[in-house]
Amino acid sequence: MTTAYDVVIIGAGPAGENAGDYARQRGLSAAIVEAELVGGECSYWGCMPSKALLRPTEVLAAARRVPAAAPAVTGAVDVEAALRSRDAFTSGWDDEGQVSWLESAGIDLIRGRGRVVGERLVEITAEDGSITTLEANRGVVIAVGSRAATPPIPGLADVTTWDNRDATAAKQIPTRLLVLGGGVIGVELAQAIRRLGAEQVTVIEAEDRLLVTEEGFAGAEVAEALAADGIQVELSARAEKVHRDGTDGPVTVSLQDGRELRGDELLVAVGRRAPTDDLGLESIGVESGRGGFVTVDDHLRVPGHDWLYVVGDANGRSLLTHQGKYQARLVGDALAGVEVDPAWADIHAVPRVVFTDPQVAAVGLTEAQARDAGHDVLAVQFSMAHTAGGALAGKGAQGTAQLVIDQQRQIIIGATFVGAGAGELLQAATIAIVGEVPLSRLWHAVPSFPTVSEVWLRLLEQVRAAELDR
Hints:
Enolase-like, domain 1; five-stranded antiparallel β-sheet; alpha/beta; FAD/NAD(P)-binding domain; globular; 25% strand; eight-stranded mixed β-sheet
């Protein structure tokens, strides 16, 4: 028996939920298929629990930077309380609240694994083996997110390791943690676990710097902060073999230079892959690419299938929760027949934050990306600590701000801020880039004194000084 809906969505993470919600707001019927927890990776194993683990120690570090407040910090963080807070933010890995929201939005939930079995047809296999078929009058939306990737390192597949799910859901803090990968997940969780009490944390990164997709100074400043926390950062370090003693004994990572690093747990954080291999896409002639990601056009449609959309991590355009939600909003409207702009921000203005201490907040292009794209680039920097607000943050509250300017068009095309709470500066830069606000007009956006936002004025002064020197 086949049930018809206007929209059928596979995956009930933030992207899937938003696609369904926007479709419903436009008067369409919507069903969402989910085999795990409604709310997805971000709610239970990603964004929320990791930030809940980072926040307590971030607050203590901020207090220690202020001389008059530092004496009040007389103890360490309450680890058990931090873990309880993490549990609260994940609702104890219970999705009842998220299911209630779906019901309130008028979106039907079907539990099970969904597969595309034909044009506009989705087959769902429930846990008990029963099968339901849904027909989508308007379109099918794939929103299955991503999972941790496993690199082909000899021995790695044969030992028990951690991925982001294991780390964010940990019931106790390991004494020694090895972290394979110096990207966002790796550096965030390395700092969280170290500050929550691990005696030894080592980050192993194959490239010559951390956070390789961001500005070089951002990775360098994070590496310096990790080292100050007592974290060992190994750059240009390639793992060639992994071994564990027994089932749960110490794990050893052998490096190409002959050294061996040992820990009690190994967190593998070297990238993500989309779980699209069992979605039935081959039945309609669609092949996923490297990492399982499915290619889409700027309207998030699969080429040659105007009824099939892929939003969020699974399309590989931008593996960030907020970008997936942005894409889903566009698709929800498009399915209702509303003419929408293409997904412009995925190319020109992706905002991203690394929630280490200091934070790294960036949007748009890096300087290298802008030059590679052929822009006439001017990059200007200013120390966050040299603003009045930055100085008031206390001793050691360092950081750097940078703007990437398209000199021909006189607009900002990239911005990076490194510093305590830098993520809160990001929306202003995002608006400036999306709005293509001319520099001449930005001079009239007066920052309040004494705030860290004063860095905007100092950066514009750097731009003017560079222009006067030309």
